[in-house]
Prior knowledge:
The protein is of the alpha/beta class. The chain has helices at 21-42, 60-73, 87-96, 129-138, 159-170, 173-177, 195-199, 231-239, 267-281, 297-305, 316-325, 349-363, 367-378, 395-404, 454-469; strands spanning 11-14, 49-54, 77-81, 101-105, 114-120, 155-157, 182-186, 206-210, 244-248, 255-258, 264-265, 287-291, 309-312, 328-332, 338-340, 382-389, 409-410, 413-419, 424-428, 433-438, 444-451. It has 15 helices and 21 strands. The radius of gyration is 22 Å and the shape is globular. Among the domains are: 11-161, Alpha-D-Glucose-1,6-Bisphosphate, subunit A, domain 3 (Alpha-D-Glucose-1,6-Bisphosphate, Chain A, domain 3); 382-469, Alpha-D-phosphohexomutase, C-terminal domain (TATA-Binding Protein, 2-Layer Sandwich), CATH 3.30.310.50.
Amino acid sequence: MAAIRFGTDGWRALMDKEFTFANVELVAQAFADHLAGEFKARSKPGAPRVVIGFDYRKNSENFAKTFAEVLVGNGVEVLLSTGACPTPAVSFTIVNEKCDAGIAVTASHNPPGYNGIKIKTDFGSSADKAVTDAVEAFIGKRAVVKKPFGAGNPILRNFNQKYLEHLKHYVRLDEIKKAPYKILVDSMHGVGAAHIEGLLSGGRIQITTVRSERDVTFGGIAPEPIPRFLALSMEKMKNEKFDLGVVTDGDADRVGAIRPGGEFISPGIILSLILIHFVEDLKKTGSVVTTISNTALIYKVARKLGLKVHETPVGFKYVCEIMRRENVLIGGEESGGIGFQNYLYERDGLLSALLLMEMMAMRRQTFDEILRGVEKEFGKLFYVRSDLDYPNELKPKLFATLAANRPLTLCGHPVKDTKTRDGTKFILDDESWLLFRLSGTEPILRIYSEATSQSLAEELVSQGKAIAFQIPK
């Protein structure tokens, strides 16, 4: 039971170790106990109603069924997806059906050996630490109660149908469909599947989808939209005549993009482009939320547009906290999770991809033309991230050592500022930066950098690795 710990966005573990049917039952019972306590504390009438969806991973549908059986055994009314669905479809169903919570059985972008549980709140966002801590505290406290499915519980529902209809109403679908672009969509064998192609069929726009079919091994890689896992689509963008490449992760709540020629475009740049689109093309107003690991371009664009920027730790739940309390245009993470005004309090990779196409269609410009204009106005930035297996004995010492021995310079540039809200971030005199951060869902150290040249960004990460492994044991 000590192995069951919720991280930045849910509990994730290896299926041949901690993520077992027995442990899923323990988490489901703990979740049911927490929910019962919440209902009692709020004096809410009736039984709790919970949505359960799942992704394409090995046994996800069976883990979802097991979770549902425990909830049914505890008197919870369950809406269970009839098939694999994007995590945003789970969030949409919670809100649309006015349910009390939701569960997504997914390990998102993690390697294929992992699976996981994401807890969603009644407003569709990821549960915060107070909720996950409360669920953890209940684990193993009561015997698991299961009940086979009976008439009317769970209710079986196709979550994708209404979710995709909702997407149609959020974007200018007709505008996109009549645009003469060729778009490559890479679903990375995840639940993004061929949904974008289906939404945009029948128009002038041509959509080619790769890796749309279920493969529980994800082709032997992690379904994460970062360059080292995108050789297939980057090669296609280099050698074939596509105007834009878009990529979604395993549970389709994150996005990446590739420009003609095969260059990967980071999610922070995608967020910046959609922000420009919202303000200049759609005349929307509001503030911006970004995590500490995201690109400086967001701040440059926001300054130009006169918008307030909120900076949060990594994790979309922190972005959501601000989106719930004020008028936010757009909010997102460097890992590709982006949320939008007047939508769900949740990120959505499919919608992010469609909004890029909407921007192209409304401006009657190619993706490359839009990018070149932004790079000319704000300068081109280069973003590098390296994920390292990092010894457990060094982890508690790393940030104390960085605080006590703050470097005065990095790669010949003076360090002008340090931020420690989530990890340690050193900001240089030219606004380049280097960030050290431990992952909340995997046993790794992430080192990020951004600079005005690829060579400086890579040099900063190399120096960061040297610093991290010089920490005395």
